[in-house]
Design a protein that fits this description.
The complex is a heterotrimer of chains A (about 290), B (about 325) and C (about 375).
Chain A: H1 18-51, H2 71-78, H3 82-113, H4 119-137, H5 139-148, H6 155-179, H7 183-191, H8 196-207, H9 209-225, H10 228-233, H11 242-251, H12 258-282
Helix pairs in contact in A: 2-12, 3-6, 3-9, 3-11, 4-6, 6-9, 7-8, 9-12, 11-12
Chain B: H1 24-35, H2 38-66, H3 76-79, H4 87-94, H5 96-128, H6 134-148, H7 151-162, H8 168-172, H9 181-184, H10 186-211, H11 215-223, H12 228-239, H13 241-256, H14 261-265, H15 276-286, H16 290-319
Helix pairs in contact in B: 2-16, 4-16, 5-10, 5-13, 6-10, 10-13, 11-12, 13-16, 15-16
Chain C: E1 4-12, E2 18-27, E3 32-36, H1 43-51, E4 58-63, E5 66-67, E6 78-81, H2 93-103, H3 108-121, H4 137-150, E7 155-159, H5 167-184, E8 187-192, H6 195-201, E9 204-209, E10 212-217, H7 219-224, H8 229-234, E11 241-247, E12 252-255, E13 258-261, E14 275-280, E15 285-288, E16 296-305, E17 310-316, E18 319-325, E19 334-339, E20 345-348
Parallel strand pairs in C: 3-8, 3-9, 6-7, 7-8
Antiparallel strand pairs in C: 1-2, 1-4, 4-5, 9-10, 11-12, 11-14, 12-13, 14-20, 15-19, 16-17, 16-19, 17-18
Helix pairs in contact in C: 2-3, 2-4, 3-4
Classes of the chains: A mainly alpha (about 290), B mainly alpha (about 325), C alpha+beta (about 375).
């Protein structure tokens, strides 16, 4: 075959058949309509949270503020419970998260490296079970248990209950990361003379750090937003986390203090949103293995 | 063709089965023994096992016992509960509010988890697949934010959104002006609310599932002339059946045990949104009937078990 | 530096897989020794047992004068290069190389000096501060080797270190490994399933199957005088012709329905009517005109270009015979095939062993540990 000769005219394909064009256009229109409706559905209820905190006269409607102000945040500072509850939320979520990371990492590593018959089935059942029990089905026995332990009205009771409930999922996710860690990493360190502890500290922990971050962020978000457990286990409003205080703000008698609610909602939500956006940018927010049939 | 074929049963001419290599399982144990001793391993597992045992498994079992007593939140029966046999269960079966709660719960699960979140989540995942643009990112961020924002904040956002007088929803609708959605259509409202709240999980799960389908499978279907719908039916759905069932199972169980609607309606008006978790809470903590609440909890656990068994059964059935 | 001695080593995995079966082996000081075999033959298990990553079911392993059977891997003074290199993704190259030294509590300056030297000798000097993910496959492989080198162990253990490289890089890496080991003179145990690698690198090699050693010897010896049919079929880029045949009453061989003379070295040794397998490498064959006395005759079927020469497949009756030649016939052409008698091997079809030729050459003696 000889080399192609240079063409003088640009090559044009035949126009597509009309039905192909029509189908494509209709498809596009449907697509954009769906995307627009779905986007509005998710965006509109959130608008109030973005607008009302800066509105000098906030109401329940999401409106462009007639005059922008930061005064609403002063209401938060002046309220005796608001800032304290944010501090309580921070305390509860950080301590619970650290406990979950430590306990989940150790057990996920051991479960990944030592074979126990029925291990995966057991983990899966526990995962399902925790989805049920931490919700609500066990609120009575959990209340009684914490009561018997003398931990009612103490943060440690909330921490232990939430850690116990969230751990199965944490172990489940982390074990997936541990399973993905090549055995040769550890073996190579062993041949080099490292102890089990050194292997864990120098090799395993740094390599599965993304996994630790995943369950850390996940646990933080869960505890930060949890309402039922502190609602049942804490009596003293000074100990209540923001979830409970927020609820009290809009259900307790009298007219709701909208400026306080608006500013407080935003302050309470921002850490979660910031954390999410950070994780999303840094790692991409997605599912890490594990969740399949 | 190998020349060794003619040499009869020459050993080397036969393919060596790959599984002759010590199996993963064998290596697991042998290697595990060197990497981590059994005693160290037990020590590593102990803290998590302890927490899970005490604060997850034990309460679930204990609820079975508490349900057989008349233990109360306060008073004499709090300190010294009596064994009352199945009284709590017979009382529950005769309580019309229990049946009401059960029906409301089932409608809530069906409407928000099985239909709302699953369908919307799958549609979003399918429609947005392979589309690279800011719009897609924005929509995904919104859906995920709805999922991870604190429950009491989103509850209030929806109270404001659905408010009859000032609510944004009524302001957007041209034809109605003052519908009090949470009073006039309370169950529908919390179903829509929970769909909004929880679609992210289904969307992410299905997104991952659709991504895991090798592009060549879809391309083969396209070359064969399959339409988008046919690709969905013949290539995508069969491949993600496992994910679909997993999503349905988890979403059903989560929704069945969800307490968040309490933050919107506290079960009202007139028990129209009183799902079982709220019923348990009201009986146990508002009326102080812990024993009765525990009995209802036990019934809820039983229903959860049935849901799980049902899905596992379907999963097995389809796989074999 | 030390020799490695294996005595009666047996490794049975839970579940009953017998990976290594009562195996004896001596690896000499400074020797480059390869363990070659198909997957599942136990070569990797043997190597991991030497490293201490597997605990033997029975037997003894000594390194130098010391019995290390029950000694943990870190105290055996060995360095291992893994198939996947096991480079720690969170450490820079220099820290990867220095990790074994760090574990052994060398000072930071000493660690960095030795890591730098090892890296330099493997032309990795420029890459010390990169992460493994930023390196090419060949560079990663050299970092793994550098880590072993920096450690200055008495034995190197290599577990298929070249199998993740593409063909061209593999050749390059082979050459530098051979040279490096020669320079350092450290005893080396090298596991591979690639016979050409074993042939190219080894001072001595062992061919393994089913947990046992089938043949030990220098590469030339294993290549030219395999002691059984398995080794004969396993060694050689172009597989050896192994043809079923029977001795005839008049001192010849019946081969694919044709009669050829018994090769010289075997003359007068074989009783008639014995089933033997005729083994000859394609490289030792040549084409003759058809019906040449003493040659087999058949039809040329395919000629494949190997580079400078051609591999010609000849169909003799229902038997395929392969010959390497520089002058290929056209397919369909009738040709004769003859093998140089000195290189032809006869195996007993019954027990699959090489039939010893008289007088017995030293290489025929099956080595035992």
């Amino acid at each position: 075959m000889s080399a192609p000769t240079r063409r003088h005219e640009p090559v044009r394909p035949a126009a597509p058949p009309a039905r192909v064009v029509v189908r494509a256009v209709v498809g596009r229109i449907g697509f954009y309509a769906f995307v627009a409706v779905a986007g509005l559905f998710f965006a509109v209820p959130m608008l109030w949270l973005v607008l009302a905190p800066f509105d000098a006269t906030p109401g329940l409607a999401a409106e462009i503020p007639s005059s922008v102000t930061l005064d609403n945040f002063r209401a938060v500072l002046e309220n005796p419970f608001a800032l304290r509850s944010l501090w309580n939320s921070l305390l509860l979520s950080v301590i619970t998260t650290l406990l979950i990371i430590a306990a989940a990492a150790l057990s996920a590593y051991a479960l990944s490296r030592v074979r126990i018959p029925g291990r995966d089935l057991m983990l899966y059942v526990l995962l399902l079970f925790s989805a049920v029990v931490t919700g609500t089905a066990a609120m009575v026995p959990i209340f009684r248990l914490v009561f018997e332990l003398g931990l009612i009205n103490r943060h440690v009771g909330v921490v232990l209950v939430l850690a116990g409930g969230l751990l199965p999922a944490g172990v489940f996710i982390l074990k997936d990361f541990m399973d993905g860690l090549p055995r040769s990493y550890e073996e190579s360190a062993l041949v080099a003379g490292a102890s089990s502890f050194q292997v864990l500290r120098d090799i395993v922990t740094p390599v599965v750090r993304p996994g630790l971050a995943v369950i850390g962020v996940w646990a933080l978000v869960q505890v930060w937003g949890d309402f039922l457990v502190p609602f049942i286990l804490l009596r003293d409003p000074n100990l209540s986390p923001a979830a409970v205080v927020m609820f009290n703000f809009y259900t307790e008698g009298g007219t709701a203090n909208i400026p306080l609610l608006a500013a407080f909602s935003l302050l309470y939500t921002l850490p979660v949103v910031a954390l999410y956006l950070f994780v999303n940018r840094r790692y991409g927010f997605r599912f890490y293995g594990g969740i399949k049939s | 063709m190998r020349t060794t074929d003619q040499a009869g049963d020459v050993e080397g001419g036969e393919p060596v089965p790959d599984d002759a290599e010590p199996s993963d399982e064998a290596q697991d144990r042998a290697g595990g023994a060197t990497i981590l001793g059994r005693i160290t391993a037990s020590g590593f597992i102990a803290p998590a096992a302890g927490l899970i045992g005490i604060f997850l498994i034990f309460p679930a079992l204990w609820t079975l016992y508490l349900g057989l007593t008349d233990v109360r939140l306060t008073g004499a029966a709090a300190a010294d509960p009596q064994f009352v046999g199945l009284d709590n269960y017979t009382a529950a079966l005769q309580d019309s509010l229990f049946w009401n709660a059960l029906v409301v719960t089932l409608i809530f699960v069906l409407g928000s988890a099985i239909v709302g979140q699953t369908v919307l989540g799958f549609t979003l995942a399918w429609v947005l697949r392979g589309w690279r643009s800011r719009t897609r990112q924005v929509i995904e961020v919104l859906v995920i934010l709805a999922w991870i924002m604190p429950g009491s904040v989103v509850a209030f956002l929806w109270i404001a959104f659905l408010d009859g007088r000032d609510g944004t929803l009524n302001a957007m609708l041209p034809f109605v002006t003052d519908t009090e959605w949470l009073l006039e259509n309370p169950l529908t409202s919390i179903i829509v609310f929970n769909t909004w709240r929880g679609t992210a999980f289904a969307m992410l799960l299905f997104g991952a599932a659709i991504n895991s389908i090798p592009p060549s499978h879809l391309e083969t279907a396209r070359l064969a002339g399959a339409s988008g719908w046919q690709q969905l039916r013949d290539v995508v759905l069969p491949r993600i059946r496992g994910h679909l069932l997993t999503a349905l199972l988890l979403l059903s169980m989560w929704t069945f045990n969800l307490f968040t609607p309490y933050l919107l309606t506290q079960g009202g008006p007139n028990f129209e949104t009183e799902i079982l978790p709220i019923y348990v809470f009201r009986e146990a903590f508002n009326f102080g009937r812990l024993g009765y609440g525990a009995a209802i909890s036990a019934i809820m656990l039983l229903i959860n078990l049935l849901i799980a068994l049902f899905y596992i059964h379907v999963l097995r059935e389809r796989n074999s | 530096m030390a020799e490695v001695r294996i005595e009666g080593l047996t490794k049975r995995f839970p579940g009953g897989v017998q990976a290594v079966d009562d195996l004896d082996l001596d690896i000499e000081d400074g020797e480059f020794f390869s363990l070659l075999g198909p997957s599942g033959c136990g070569k990797t298990t043997l190597l991991r047992s030497i490293a201490g990553l597997e605990t033997p079911t029975a037997g003894r392993i000594s390194i130098g004068e010391q019995d290390v059977t029950r000694i943990p891997p870190g105290e055996r003074d060995v360095a291992m290069v893994f198939q996947d290199y096991a480079l720690y993704p969170h450490m820079e190259v220099v820290d990867n190389i220095a990790y074994p030294l760090k574990v052994r509590k060398h000072s930071k300056s000493d660690r960095h000096r030795r890591a730098g030297e090892a890296a330099e000798s493997l032309s990795l000097g420029e890459l010390l501060n990169r992460r493994p993910a930023a390196l090419s496959g060949g560079q990663q492989q050299r970092v793994a080797v550098a880590r072993a080198v920096a450690h200055e162990p008495s034995v190197f253990l290599f577990d298929e270190p070249l199998s993740n490289l593409d063909a061209r890089l593999r050749l390059e890496a082979r050459t530098f490994l051979k040279r490096l080991q020669g320079d350092l003179g450290v005893s080396t145990v090298y596991v591979t399933h690639d016979q050409s690698e074993a042939l190219a690198l080894s001072d001595r090699m062992a061919v393994m199957k089913d947990g046992r050693i089938r043949q030990i010897g220098a590469p030339e010896e294993v290549f030219s005088r395999p002691t059984d049919l398995f080794v004969a079929s396993f060694i050689g880029s172009v597989p050896m012709n192994l043809l079923a045949s029977t001795t005839t009453a008049d001192g010849g061989l019946e081969l694919a329905g044709q009669r050829v003379p018994v090769p010289g070295p075997y003359e007068g040794m074989l009783e008639p009517n014995r089933s033997v397998t005729f083994g000859a490498r394609p490289e030792h064959g040549s084409l003759t005109p058809p019906d040449t006395p003493g040659a087999m005759t058949g039809l040329a079927v395919v000629a494949e270009l190997l580079g400078t020469e051609h591999l010609v497949t000849v169909e003799c009756g229902d038997v395929m015979v392969r010959v390497v030649t520089s002058d290929p016939p056209t397919p369909g052409e009738p040709v004769g095939v003859r093998f140089e008698e000195a290189w032809v091997l006869l195996f007993d079809t019954e027990d699959e062993q090489l039939i010893r030729r008289e007088p017995a050459a030293a290489g025929d003696v099956r080595s035992t540990g």
